[in-house]
Design brief:
This protein is 31% helix and 21% strand. The chain has five helices and four strands. It has a four-stranded antiparallel sheet with strand order 1-2-3-4.
Length: 183
């Protein structure tokens, strides 16, 4: 299932391009270092060795505080999954914020994603587990299910913040993404 915005290959290309730009050769040649000054005459007393002041620790990167689950993520995750599997794409789009709408794509584009999902995995045949976890500071509903054509269970993940869809993902249950250390 490849909803727009989830493509790992695309993310890898962006990362690679950024890394290459950072390693690019500068346009101007590096400055030639000046020779070191001559040492002081031997008769002069050596200055007392004083340790260099300790550098202040770098300030931690400012991060948004985690968003706490409100308690209805399982109910909403079930509803969103039902809407996905029954092609109620207008409802999904209406319950997504701007980030979620970009990830999902337009309602008319979602049918192709659903068709791809069904072609690869088949129909959902059994829900194995449902839970809410914190990932990247946001609550996610994780639904692990067996599918009629899949050799192993797959996990459908909805990022749900304040009742709205902020993202979607899917992966084999044997390869779940990392979750936040404090749950």
């Amino acid at each position: 299932m490849r909803f727009r915005g989830i493509s790992l290959a695309a993310a890898g290309l962006v990362l690679s391009a950024t890394m290459l730009a950072a390693q690019a050769t500068p346009a101007t040649p590096p400055a030639v270092p000046k020779p070191a000054p001559a040492p002081p005459p031997a008769a002069a007393p050596a200055p007392a060795a004083t340790p260099a002041p300790a550098a202040a620790p770098a300030a931690p990167a400012v991060q948004n505080p985690p968003i706490k689950p409100v308690g209805n993520e399982i109910e909403l995750g079930r509803k969103f999954t039902q809407w996905l599997f029954t092609a109620q794409f207008d409802s999904l789009f209406a319950h997504a914020d701007a980030e979620g709408q970009q990830t999902l794509g337009k309602p008319e584009e979602m049918q192709a994603h659903l068709d791809e999902l069904v072609a690869r995995l088949g129909d959902e045949s059994e829900v194995v587990e449902e839970k809410v976890v914190m990932r990247n500071g946001r609550p996610q509903y994780w639904r692990t299910s067996r599918y009629t054509l899949a050799p192993e269970p797959f996990m459908l993940r909805w990022v749900i913040v304040n009742g709205q869809i902020m993202g979607i993902g899917m992966n084999p249950a044997s390869n779940p993404p990392a979750i936040d250390p404090v749950q």
